[in-house]
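Reopening: Polymerase still failing for me.
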Amino acid sequence: MNVSKITNKIKNIKITGRGIYFFSFIMYFVISFLRTSTYTEVVSSNQLVRITYLIALLLILKVYFFDQQTVKSFLINSLVILVGVVIWRSTHAIDIFLYMLFVISARDINYHALIEFYLKIGILMLVFMVISSGLGIIKDLVFIRNGVRRHSLGILYPTDFAAHAFFLVLAYCYVYFRKLDWKAYLSFILLAGFLTVETQARLDIISILLTIPVIWIAKRASEGKVFSKFMASFYWMIAPILAYITVLAAYFYSHSKLYIFADKIVSGRLALSHTAFQKYGVSVFGNLVQEHGFGGNAGSKAFYQSGMGGKYFFIDSSFMRLMIIYGVITFVAVIAVMTIIGLKSVLTSDYRLAAIMVMLAISCVIEQHLLDMSYDPFLIALFASEITGHDRHENHDLATLEV
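Support: Ran it again with your exact input. Result attached.
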């Protein structure tokens, strides 16, 4: 082995803003994914969180030293970072701060390549969790509901496993949008069947199945089909409409037959959101909310001790989490981002991100994963480039990105 050649190669490595971003994204994605698994009993979740401080520093360095800045962009970026720090300290949730950094530092980032990384690494990670739990390396937490066993397959909770699968389906639809056919849709149906047997995550399974017609219409719209273009032209409106309905329904929740019926459909999430309103209210920069869920080993024990009663309290809806945990500023900003991404997608007649924003909005009504990078990388698209990408198999690796 020629040591001098290796040394020269190391010296010749060119550090770029894109390289820093992709390195940070991959590192944070893997760390975030591990935190959603029962590997947290092997590797301390607190230790993983500490690594995110380094990632935050890298992204800030990219913004100020690698991105082209004008006085206006410098002031806006600085304001966003400052607000992010305030929200982080108010909520004790650094993930919101990291997500904000990933959004504002995504300029000149090939978004299509980024989602390809997300898709491939995400599939590997999910399969790795299933194998690890099957071999007994980590726990496959089992929850029994109505006599049916629900497996988490190495993830903290069965619905979280199904949510990972749902977001990977969205990523697949994004990357291979032009090539989607009946075989892809059939694979989604088979995946939904597998999740039904293993996790019984009803709402996530419905979301996966609903993705098929939403994406199908978007694909036909991008091909110029008139009726599909008309239907897809309204996609960008779905996020603000569902956010408004969700918050309003939770705030005015009562024990009327209509509300009880709606609450049953969303598995009790409406009543819990109303309780959150009463207990914590709404603030500008967010609240420190004490939640007690059933995820992980401790949550599993609580489930078998007290069932759905006891100390269980968790705000599942991402829309409600934005409003109550992260505050009004974050709520308005995130809904605006989702709306802008959807509208830009419609105006460029591509429609793929508009369709994904529809499914993301539906997920936000029932799931808490909107600002969790291990699930949702789609808000990064706001400032990124190469949104539509190229419908061919390209070899995107870190070497070609000049890390």
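Residues 391-403 have pLDDT under 50 and may be disordered. If you still see a failure, please send the error message rather than a screenshot.
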